[in-house]
């Protein structure tokens, strides 16, 4: 549904060139919820602006729903943009219009007749769980409800792709979870492809099927969560399934080990750790992410036996992530 080919974006500034995106190639299949994560300045906003053709890439191409948006004329671009819905951190609703009128706005622009508009708006209000709040003005809605209106408005013209730019950054954790659940629900019902730009790995954990980690305009890592979290040495896996903090005063040279896959593999790893006389667990966690089980542990390994212990753990299927010694 979305193909990025060797995308490069260079800004000319007074102090010289800024390479915001550098050789980005990515495929996002239809119906996937794909998280783009990265720290401030990684290039996330530039990427989303290239996807909507608000920004033209310096080189490379952006293909959304079969149309090369990076090469379209303005007239064709307007049509293509209707196939892309946008959800922002700050919803920017018209304060003087009701929720229903806000959702109707893109339909009016698209020339949908008034009677049809009313039916579609009610469908959309129902879809986002605001079936009886169509007459409310934005000031009468909570932050989460405003975001629901924002999502309904983005879906009004039946886009094939929903681009969400930090959709929950302004919301508390409970509302965040509800909005992410709504996004997943919308994907399940409509089969829409969703891209979520976020700096919060918790958003990826909660809702994404796949993720891409950006740093300095480049892809550090990308893939379905089930693949990423079981990849030894994966920075995304480290960010998504962090090992619990080791208490202060317990800062000896620790070894981080991990295992991933089915429950049997975790059980095998736990057994190997528990029966290893020269290593003990200082901190650890086991979680299910992307449908697979992932375990990560900090082990205190007796100094003299390190090589033998690590080779036994490796033989038992554990990955040695980080040997601090
Ligand atoms: N219009 C612009 N002109 C010049 N440089 C820009 C412009 N927009 C972005 N940049 C630069 O491009 C790089 C990537 O910026 P971008 O805003 O895409 O990152 P980001 O990951 O979205 O960051 P944040 O999470 O802070 O929004 C940064 O170095 C930024 O300073």
UniProtKB/TrEMBL annotation:
The keyword Translocase applies. CDD domains: ABC_MetN_methionine_transporter. Keywords: Amino-acid transport, ATP-binding, Cell membrane, Membrane, Nucleotide-binding, Translocase, Transport. SMART domains: AAA. The keyword Translocase applies. One of its GO terms (molecular function) is ATP binding. InterPro entries: AAA+_ATPase, ABC_transporter-like_ATP-bd, ABC_transporter-like_CS, MetN_ABC, MetN_ABC_transporter-like, P-loop_NTPase. Residues 2-241 form the ABC transporter domain. This is ATP-binding cassette domain-containing protein.
């Amino acid at each position: 549904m979305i193909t990025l080919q060797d995308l490069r974006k260079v800004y000319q500034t007074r102090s010289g060139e800024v390479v915001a995106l550098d050789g980005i190639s990515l495929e996002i299949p239809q119906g996937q919820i794909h998280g783009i994560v990265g720290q401030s300045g990684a290039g996330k906003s530039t990427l989303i602006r290239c996807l909507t053709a608000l920004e033209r890439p310096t080189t490379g191409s952006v293909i959304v729903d079969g149309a090369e948006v990076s090469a379209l004329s303005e007239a064709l671009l307007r049509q293509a943009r209707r196939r892309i819905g946008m959800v922002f951190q700050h919803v920017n609703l018209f304060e003087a219009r009701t929720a229903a009128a806000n959702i109707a706005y893109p339909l009016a622009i698209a020339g949908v007749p008034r009677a049809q508009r009313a039916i579609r708006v009610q469908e959309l209000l129902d879809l986002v769980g605001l079936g009886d709040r169509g007459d409310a003005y934005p000031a009468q809605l909570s932050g989460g409800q405003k975001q629901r209106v924002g999502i309904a408005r983005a879906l009004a013209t039946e886009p094939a792709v929903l681009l969400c730019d930090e959709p929950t950054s302004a919301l508390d954790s409970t509302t965040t979870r509800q909005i992410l659940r709504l996004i997943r629900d919308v994907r399940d019902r409509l089969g829409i492809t969703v891209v979520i730009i976020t700096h919060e790995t918790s958003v990826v954990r909660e809702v994404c099927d796949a993720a891409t980690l950006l740093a300095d305009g480049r892809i550090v890592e990308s893939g379905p969560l089930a693949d990423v979290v079981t990849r030894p040495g994966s920075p995304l896996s480290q960010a998504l399934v962090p090992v619990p903090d080791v208490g202060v005063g317990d800062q000896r040279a620790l070894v981080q080990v991990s295992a991933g896959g089915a429950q049997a593999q975790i059980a095998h790893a736990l057994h190997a750790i528990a029966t290893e006389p020269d290593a003990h667990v200082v901190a650890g966690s086991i979680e299910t992410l992307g449908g697979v089980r992932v375990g990560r542990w900090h082990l205190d390994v007796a100094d003299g036996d390190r090589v033998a212990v690590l080779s036994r753990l490796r033989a038992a299927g554990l990955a040695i992530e980080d040997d601090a010694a």
